[in-house]
Amino acid sequence: ETGVTQTPRHLVMGMTNKKSLKCEQHLGHNAMYWYKQSAKKPLELMFVYNFKEQTENNSVPSRFSPECPNSSHLFLHLHTLQPEDSALYLCASSQEWRTNTEAFFGQGTRLTVV
Amino acid sequence: GENVEQHPSTLSVQEGDSAVIKCTYSDSASNYFPWYKQELGKRPQLIIDIRSNVGEKKDQRIAVTLNKTAKHFSLHITETQPEDSAVYFCAATSGGGSTLGRLYFGRGTQLTVWP
Questions:
Q1: What are the chain B neighbours of A103 within 8 Å (beta carbons)?
Q2: Fewest CB atoms within 10 Å of the CB: A38, B49, B101, B105?
Q3: Which pLDDT belongs to residue A109?
Q4: Hey, are the CB atoms on A45 and B45 less than 8 Å from each other?
Q5: CB contact under 8 A, A42 and B4
Q6: Distance to chain A for B108, nearest Cα, Å
């Protein structure tokens, strides 16, 4: 499958649960991103990985923990979340960080924290 | 950091009419301005982008204009069709410092095209 793929598409979790979101890209890109999309808010950049190295952590709470084992895969580990963390989490990739090239988005994981 | 404002938040037009969405940005060093379209339940997808060395770019029914002096850029859709209905996001990249290259998004415009 080409493009950026995210799993699961939907996730409901309790505040004490631990879960992980997965993102995979088959575009040969070197930069991958996690964004949070909440209703009526701009897309918020959470993390950036460039060549597997984390280059940006946009003041994200520690209950969100990213992992990038290689340039094709990106995970977001979740634990002890709050109801206000409910949102659409989008993964994206681009050729490289800071080169002003197109970002390709996945379809997102709709997260609900109960 | 960069601040991107987008207006209007909602826009309804009749099929065949034109639609214009406007964005302003704060960082005068910003140099890349993409527009993304997000249909309901789908991923955002790039529809057009413009760089700071160009004032206008057109792709069929879609055009983007950039006024660097006013720090203002706009998306123009002509001959709108129902399938143009979606949320449109503008973005600007920070031009320098620790936030160099980071994309800052506007809040989005929900465009509805009525047949």
A1: 34, 46, 103
A2: A38
A3: 97
A4: no
A5: yes
A6: 7
A43: nearest CB among B46, B93, B105: B105
pLDDT at A2: 61
Judge: A42–B34 Cβ closer than 8 Å, yes or no: no
- Between positions 60 and 99 of B, the ones with CB within 8 A of A are 89, 93
Q: Which two tokens stand for residue B17?
A: 């009419």
CA angle B45, B112, A92 (to 5 degrees): 15
pLDDT digits (tens, 9 = 90+) for A37-95: 998 788 898 998 988 888 777 789 999 999 999 989 999 999 999 999 999 999 999 98
Q: How far is A104 from chain B (nearest CA, A)?
A: 7
